[in-house]
């Protein structure tokens, strides 16, 4: 089964646009207060641009309204610092929405050619993928995105032979860089559509076909690395089969309902590595202290992007110290804090949270020993990669999920409505269930846009749809009211909390599930994403004629 397709250039569309202020502080440092995801990385880059030692730059990332990877790259920081250096006066810079959409980095546009084969029994034999990623005018994180895409392109499945090739290319367009999912949403479209189509060709149930070919702990994945920990999808499948969507799955071509809509179900499996990949995970350091008044303070540089990490850190610290989470005060997000590295890659609770747990354990031991007064404990945690030489351990662990959707295709307008979504997720040890559910629901909304509407249009270097009136985002009316999230908790062995990263697995499979549902409706695989009504209409008219 061979599929070729291309994906769109998606805008992060965070609520809070890029903004910041800068000034000389009382230590004569240039202080930059702005949205970002790693104050120490920003500090290093700004110092290099200005030609000054890093000690002369202070960066603070206060709580902000979203990032999704789009604030890993510098935006207003260097401009603000240069203005203060040149004028000696404070500076302020706030992007208008048109500037934010026009200037900011985007999700990489991919062109994908994927081929999957199996034998007569349904056992997968070969996998081939060719990936072309458009990173725009500058490289930024293009190579890293491509590496993760290649790692995940074969899905969580066993193959006897594989060949994965990829290229990052420059084009005369705006930059692409980090975006939630980091290349995986673009490639899961290929493997999950191919698995559905190949199962149909063989006359096999698409769920059973996947189960038969799942990776297991100790297997070698198609990209060459050993999957060290358990692949927990079988546990999810047991629960998912009992749900109304997968239990009613049918390959029968639907007929229009009385309201003139075609309805069908689609699903996709997902795996997503967490932590910085390719052995680049530096770990996180935190400081936990008790002041002379008996108040507990958590000191770390993690930025609060709105995803709830800091609430989880408070819960973890409180659990170790035997106090209420509200008793943990926060001193966070600056280069004066302990370096806990970046807020990205679904790593914060897994890596920084583990450092918090370790610091809490150390501090609790001193308190139990009767030490009084001000106390301080610093801890560092970094997940361990294999000690002996292997063919690669690109991530220390993976999160696994299954997402099923029911769509309604309007035969009059060719509009697709997602009416119902059910997600089963192995989130490891869950620190904050409401926070996990919120992450999955939010990721789903971005996945709907990636699948059905969001695509930045550029012509001769200019963005044509740089407003929310022309760049079509899913709204509250487009996200289904019936969204069910089921957490199947199997602790991961890569960290003492047993946690898994969950920020991306709600988004990543959505487009593939929708594409599979559309294929059940129309018997057709689309080659351009997002799939818009103008592309659906001629296919639908032919299918219904």
UniProtKB/TrEMBL annotation:
Report which superkingdom the organism of origin falls in. Bacteria
Question: A GO molecular-function term, please?
Answer: iron ion binding
Organism source for this protein?
Gluconobacter potus
Q: Which residues form the Aldehyde oxidase/xanthine dehydrogenase first molybdopterin binding domain?
A: 4-214
Q: What SUPFAM superfamilies has UniProt attached to this entry? A: Molybdenum cofactor-binding domain (SSF56003)
One matching Pfam family, short form? MoCoBD_1
- UniProt protein name: Xanthine dehydrogenase
Q: Which residues form the Aldehyde oxidase/xanthine dehydrogenase second molybdopterin binding domain?
A: 259-368, 371-480
């Amino acid at each position: 089964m061979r599929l070729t397709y291309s994906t769109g250039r998606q805008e992060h569309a965070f609520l809070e646009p890029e903004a910041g202020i800068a000034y000389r502080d009382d230590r004569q440092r240039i202080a930059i207060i702005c949205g970002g995801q790693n104050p120490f990385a920003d500090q290093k880059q700004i110092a290099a641009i200005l030609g000054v030692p890093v000690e002369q730059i202070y960066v603070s990332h206060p709580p902000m309204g979203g990032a999704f990877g789009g604030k890993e790259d510098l935006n207003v920081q260097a401009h603000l610092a240069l203005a203060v250096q040149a004028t000696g006066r404070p500076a302020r810079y706030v992007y208008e929405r048109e500037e934010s959409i026009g200037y900011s980095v985007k999700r990489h546009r991919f062109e994908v050619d994927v081929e999957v084969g199996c034998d007569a029994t349904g056992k997968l034999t070969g996998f081939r993928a060719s990936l072309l990623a458009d990173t725009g005018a500058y490289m930024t994180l293009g190579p890293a995105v491509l590496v993760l895409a290649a790692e995940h392109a074969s899905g969580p499945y066993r193959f006897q032979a594989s060949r994965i090739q990829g290229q990052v290319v420059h084009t005369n367009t705006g930059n692409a860089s980090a975006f939630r999912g980091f290349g995986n949403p673009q490639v899961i479209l290929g493997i999950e559509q191919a698995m559905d189509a190949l199962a149909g060709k063989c006359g096999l149930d698409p769920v059973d076909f996947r189960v038969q070919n799942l990776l297991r702990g100790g297997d070698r994945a198609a990209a060459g690395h050993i999957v060290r920990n358990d692949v927990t999808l079988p546990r999810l499948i047991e629960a998912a089969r009992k749900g109304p969507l997968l239990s009613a799955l049918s390959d029968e071509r639907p007929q229009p309902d009385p309201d003139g809509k075609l309805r069908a179900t689609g699903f996709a499996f997902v795996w997503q590595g967490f932590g910085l990949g390719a052995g680049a995970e530096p770990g996180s350091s935190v400081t936990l202290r008790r002041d002379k008044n008996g108040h507990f303070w958590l000191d770390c540089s993690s930025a609060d992007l709105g995803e709830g990490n800091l609430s989880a850190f408070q819960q973890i610290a409180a659990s170790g110290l035997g106090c209420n989470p509200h008793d943990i005060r926060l001193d966070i997000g600056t280069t004066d804090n302990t370096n806990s590295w970046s807020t990205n890659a679904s790593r914060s609770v897994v890596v920084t949270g583990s450092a918090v747990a370790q610091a809490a354990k150390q501090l609790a031991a001193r308190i139990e020993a009767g030490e009084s007064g001000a106390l301080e404990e610093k801890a560092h945690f970094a997940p361990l990669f294999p000690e002996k030489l292997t063919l690669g351990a690109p991530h220390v662990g993976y999160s696994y999920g299954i997402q099923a959707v029911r769509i309604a295709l309007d035969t009059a307008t060719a509009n697709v409505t997602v009416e119902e979504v059910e997600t089963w997720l192995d989130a490891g040890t869950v620190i904050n269930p409401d926070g996990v559910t919120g992450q999955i629901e939010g990721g789903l909304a971005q996945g709907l846009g990636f699948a059905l509407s969001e695509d930045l249009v550029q012509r001769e270097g200019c963005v044509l749809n740089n407003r929310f009136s022309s760049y079509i985002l899913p709204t509250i009316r487009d996200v289904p009211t019936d969204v069910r999230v089921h957490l199947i908790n199997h602790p991961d062995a890569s960290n003492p909390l047993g946690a898994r990263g969950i920020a991306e697995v709600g988004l990543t499979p959505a487009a593939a599930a929708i594409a599979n549902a559309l294929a059940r409706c129309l018997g057709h695989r689309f080659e351009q994403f997002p799939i818009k009504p103008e592309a659906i209409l001629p296919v639908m008219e032919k299918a219904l004629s």
